[in-house]
Amino acid sequence: MSLTVYLSGEIHSNWRDEIKLGAERKGLDVTFTSAVTNHAASDAAGDHLGSEDKPFWRDHKSSKVNAIRTKTLIEKSDVVVVRFGDKYKQWNAAFDAGYCAALGKPFITLHADDIVHALKEVDAAALAWATDTDQIVDILKYVTTG
Question: Less Cβ crowding at N or C end of the chain, within 10 Å?
């Protein structure tokens, strides 16, 4: 079985690369997609629509342009992995998880156990919770190969 997996969440570590490399090493038939992970490019996604004096409106326009990509890729995915890191609050990741739940899209959360309480509602809607990228690769292996 082949899968398209959307990788959502924090952009300050190499977790995406670890999952991609692990899937490649195990020979899994998985295509990965993701939001734009270049922070500056993501923040500037709406700048071509005109400059703004207030940061709120710049962020507003850019978030809508980014949402075109995010919503499209989540909807086209078979599974979503939502990563919550420890350095920043990833409100966008929580939003993506809620969007998956609303769509009935299977998703897996990836985070350390010290933030379980803060993510209890998100984890309750997830089909699995992993604490490291190897666990994600193992889940994808099981799903694709049985």
Answer: C
